[in-house]
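Bumping with the actual sequence this time:
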Amino acid sequence: MRLRAFRRFWLTRQDPRAWPLDLNRSKFMETSLLFVALFSIACFTSTACLQERTDAPMTDDPFRWLEEIDGPRALAWVRAENEKTLGVLQSDPRYRHFYEQALSILRAKKRIADIPLEGGREHFWQDEKHVRGVLRRTTRESDRSQDLKWETILDVDALAAAENRNWVFEGANCLLPEGRLCLISLSDGGKDAVSIREFDRFAKTFVADGFYLPEGKQDVSWVDGDTLLVARDWGEGTLTQAGYPFVVKELKRAQPLGEAREIFRGEPTDSETQPLVLRDIEGHIHVTGAVRAISFFESEYVVFGADGPVKLNLPKKAEIVTIACGRLLVKLDEDWRPSEDNRFTAGSVISYELDEWKQDPLRAKASLVFQPGPRQALGELTATKNCLILTILENVQSKAFVYEYDQGAWSATPIPLPEHTGVSLSVAHDEADRVMFTVSSYLGPASVWHFDAESKRLEELKNTPSAFDASNHVVEQLEATSRDGTSIPYFLVRPKNARFDGAIPTLLLGYGGFQIPLLPSDLGPGGRLWLEQGNAYVVANARGGGEFGPQWHQAAQGATKQTTWDDFIAVAEDLVRRKITSPRRLGAIGGSQGGLLVGAAITQRPELFNAAIIEVPLLDMLRYTKLGAGAYWIGEYGDPAIAEQRAWIERYSPYQKLVAGKTYPGPLILTSTKDDRAHPAHGRKAAAKLAALGQPYLYYENIDGGHSAAANLMEEARQLALEYTYAWRRLCSE
């Protein structure tokens, strides 16, 4: 089990919610982000329920009809917009070249594959022969070989053809320690809602009459080979406002769903409720229970004991993350003082002696594992047989450590991975103290490293060929001063011979939400399509993200969300002040929460930008809780149904801020019909309003793709080609 940035994390193809507003496929920005969790639907703060709520109708909105996802009129509008946009961009001579280059890089045989199954050597892989992808297996020894031998376990393309469905593989949950039986999640076209089927990964086939859960937004945990804990739609009155379950039931093998036994029920005003099954590295269960998400960032943990459910005395902003070295580990996102002589700060990791905790979870005493310094934050963690492995962010760059517990105390030893990189934990081996890391940087290709904690041996197993010639660029970490005087770090990737005359075409990426950091990463196709031509790329580490822990996030949350937009604008202004670029040559880019960020930036300071790439965004913030999974995110933005909170949202909501008399930087807006997270109406309505105002824009809506906006490598290559063709037309032409 590993630390997940937001409650759960399958990332590469993880829990689709894990990036409620995410950058989960970030191409040019393959920024190693981590996105899901749980949101308040009723109240943003503990006093929010006492505030006046209003469901007053919106002022006249002539484009509400675009909120009907599959409405005939809406889809006809989408097709017309797609035809117009493709006609403009695909007729540009650069488009075909960009598409072929992007697809070649995305399909490269030597790229690093996802490893979605714990304890095994299964990789999920897509290429020209496997458009939807194949789950395949190799031996651990062959990791060091340049001529890997693969065995196909599940061919998603063949399955989709046989069943006439557009299946997208969304991950696997295997029953440890053997790992033979797995619950495979399949999405129709990339939606967050998935169908779940039992699969025998040794026999390489779905289990006849095995567990099957029809499509829905659901969460499932193995208890044993014949028992699951399931949170899903059980019928009327079992889903929250955001469309997620709050009822957990026990389902036995061969038992109809209607006969499953209810074991826990949250509240309909919650964000959702998830089953909790806590195993150690060898697969032994130590805790069963439920996690009640009372808000996106606040949860209550309940464990099932002999005398009934017991609510744990953890702070609401806390997450049980793993078991390591015989101890239960908890991550804190708020300061906590469990007793007079015991105080922990936000961002820390604490631990309990497991047997003591199981005997009396309400009185067990916690001890400190990790406490962040002023420029630090916790990255990820995972357990091996005898150790704990942590990655720590220090000044927005990753470092890795081995933590060992002995005689009542934890000790940390650095792992000498390459510096100035982003590091993610790839896989842990349960039979030994070995771990694998994926290491990325802006100008170097991703690489995989193997570390043996017992022998302290670190070796590079493989690296991918560079997708572009990085020899003519350098990376600098600079700082801008935001409106309130706070220093905002950002990474600048620029040509070595830059003349600083304001002429460099520059793309500025931002996110700034949900405590998710933007870290150094392999730029992949973006390096070839953008940097190689002498252009620049910038990543703004705005508040609202997780670059410096919970405080960095909470400084731009709810009533202070404008701080995120201020930080991003400050970076843009700093680039102009340093004469790296100019408003004529500067474009903003962001997806999901980052799409909201770009929307806010170009409506507040349209003169600062000449291009804006807005992917799967939130834009109508006065109706976001009514669209898609929007109610899930009240904890980040506030509730527009509460008058006081509506007032602060109204001050920046991009859709409402599109007005006559301003000139906007002709944005490219990209969405997906199948995005059941950030509703496509956000992008649709913004495009329609720009058209009504006589403003230039381009709009493209992929029929499939879900919140990633691309369901396979060809769709991703097409989207990359559209984006960079647009960027070149706006920023590089004379």
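The tokens above came from a reply further down the thread. DSSP finds 13 helices and 38 strands in the chain.
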